[in-house]
Model the fold of this input.
Amino acid sequence: MSGKLMSYLTKISGDAAALKKFQTDPAASAKDAGLSAHETSALLSRNPGAIAAAIKKGGGLAAAGDDINVTIVVVVAP
Done:
């Protein structure tokens, strides 16, 4: 797998337009990014453990097999 969720999180952390789209409609933004149903569900849960597990399952950085700490911050519009 390609690690789409990790790539997506990286994108929205540095691209104001992508972040705004996520804040406006997270589900549509995730779908447009090509995230799987599992990745989208984890992201929308805003649960760091579920997001980290989805990253690992999807072949992101955590899939390297090393015991690493993952910090995930999801910005939500007020």
About this structure: Residues 4-64 form one domain.
